[in-house]
Design brief:
Blueprint: E1 10-12, H1 20-25, E2 31-35, H2 43-48, H3 54-63, E3 68-72, H4 82-89, E4 95-97
Parallel strand pairs: 1-2, 2-3, 3-4
Helix pairs in contact: 3-4
Amino acid sequence: MGEKRKGRKIGISGDTRPTQKLEEFFQDCDYMTFDSTYSDTLRDKAKENYHTTAKEAAELAKRARVSNLILTHFSARYEDVEDLVNEAKTIHDSVVAAKDLLEINIK
């Protein structure tokens, strides 16, 4: 059982647009997984298709005071999603891309 430790708050959402309600829902999460289908250059397409850009996901995470952002739900147009991660990192300090079999040590 070990020593007592503070619980962790983890939020998961995908295939959606950022909203005020989601910002409130994810408030102070330790980890948030969120849709990042497009780069911000395709923001209009993201809005049209009810998806989110990497930058918008990071903006949501920052407003919600999320500690760690995990981007997911990438468009097939991106063979390498590192550009999306870098785009999000211009807004939020702790960003990684989800991938099959990704393991994260929840601290």
